[in-house]
Amino acid sequence: MPTTLYPTSTRDGLTRVTIWCAYTSGIVSIFGIVFLVAFFSSFVGMLGVLNDIAVVIQHFLMIPIALGLHKILRPSRPSLSQVGLLLGLVGMLVVIVLQLLFMTGVLPYSQYIGLVTAGFMVVLGWFLVVRNLHQSTEIVPRSVALTVLAGLYFGYPLWAFSLGRRLRALDRD
User: Fold this and answer.
1) Contact 103, 49 (CB under 8 A)
2) Fewer CB within 10 A of the end CB, N or C, for the chain?
3) Is residue 3 in some structural domain?
């Protein structure tokens, strides 16, 4: 049986925001993935731009998720939780800034792609740390495959919806 290391209610404001951001970012991510697949199927430039916008919004909405999960999971391993939070915030902000620089034409694609890939890998590191922190709770999805796919973008909607559902279930306990 998992240890309870989290608030027993989602009446906590940050937890509510975390739930809302998990569901909303999951929905935004679905649109982004659809735009990305459509872009690579048709090479219609506007579809790529719509994907870029979705990535910015998704990562902006992930910031409260990182903060909320840090608050919830910190009691289990405070130092690792702090490292995870820093990884998450830095990675998410790097992805947001690089996407915006690319979208506005400040950063050419040849420079952008390597840098944003590094940013995504830092965010993937956050996903893995959060998964590691969940070992004594049932808040974060357990699947390593889903965690890695979430960090690589395509599995993110499933991860986010699962997280939102698990956090909402705290109210029913």
Assistant:
1) yes
2) N
3) no
First to last CA, the chain: 14
Task: Look at the block and give the residue holding tokens 């702090």.
Answer: 82
pTM: 0.87
pLDDT digits (tens, 9 = 90+) for 30-68: 999 999 999 999 988 999 999 999 999 999 999 999 999
Separation between Cα atoms, residue 36 and residue 50, nearest integer Å: 8
- Look-up of token digits 């919830």: 72
Q: Which two tokens stand for residue 58?
A: 């998704």
- Write out pLDDT tens, residues 106-145: 999 999 999 999 999 999 999 999 988 876 566 776 677 7
* Residue-number span of the structural domain to which 144 is assigned: 13-166
Rounded Cα–Cα distance for residues 123 and 107 (Å): 21
Tell me, yes or no, whether 4 lies in a domain: no
Helices assigned H by DSSP within 74-133: 78-103, 109-133
Domain count, the chain: 1
